[in-house]
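User: Predict structure, ligand N-carbamoyl-L-aspartate.
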Amino acid sequence: MALSFRHLVSASQVTRPDADFLMERAGDMKRDIAQRDIADGVRRHADLLHDELVGLLFYEPSTRTSISFEAATKRLGGNTIVREGIHFSSLTKGETPEDTYRVVAANVDALVMRHPQAGAAAVAARRLDQYREETKGRYVPFINAGDGNNEHPTQALLDLFTIEQECDRIDHLHVAMAGDLKNGRTVHSLTKLLTLYPGTRFTFASPEQLRLPESLIAMLRDKDVEYTEVPSLDVATKGDVLYMTRVQKERFNDMEEYERLKDVFRLTMDMVEEEDVVILHPLPRVGEIATDIDELPNAAYFRQADNGVPMRAALLATMLGK
Ligand code: NCD
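Assistant: Predicted complex:
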């Protein structure tokens, strides 16, 4: 199946058929990579990306995302070039980002980028479209691996996949998102994806200063999606899914404000031991979830992280036309 987007910049580009297809394919990848459920024990996808070179430009810290894109590519028999940190790039010599994207594009078959600025992903995708015109058709798919406090669509896809696996369905779910909803880019992307499914209901729990951006509230109103905003964590534990997030220190100008807000939303055992809510977190956590919660069967955040490789494998293979 061809996806409806050429580059993945925002979760708002993803249609329901795209998401359903990618979740199904991620399921295949998961079985294949784990060599489970394969009758003859032969991995069907081991050479799928043979001869494909994926460029990973990470201008902002990352562990899970960069490692899982790299693992996904290599599990499928492809290769990667990884560049991390803005200090080692020609941007410090004054090169424009557009020039960098153009030059990198010519060296790779797909480009994955994380960038500290919101909107940087859209600039890169546009530059790769220009490159496609210049070269009369050389298509280098671009994937946004997080741009500032804007979006993180591949995390949202693996979150959606995890929700489906943990809840055994993806519609008519009550999903609570908690923490830094203003700056949490994974929240922005996942909220968009969940509105593709009927009957989704949201509770947004955050301190007043970290509420969900108005543009997302307007999107929910437009789509007639039911939501409530609450200033504390208590009621957020009553739904089907609780998506916890870290207060995004790197987005604060005022460190005193960060210090005031960072520990306001902390999930402790007494809040969830009687609940069967599926607990998710994109990780890294820095104290928002007490570690004794990890032992609960419904603490799903490490299984969620494990879904990074299969979902990114599904996405790369599909965008590369394999
Ligand atoms: C998230 C991110 O980078 O936005 N991390 C990740 O990719 N799993 C969440 C975060 O950093 O808080």
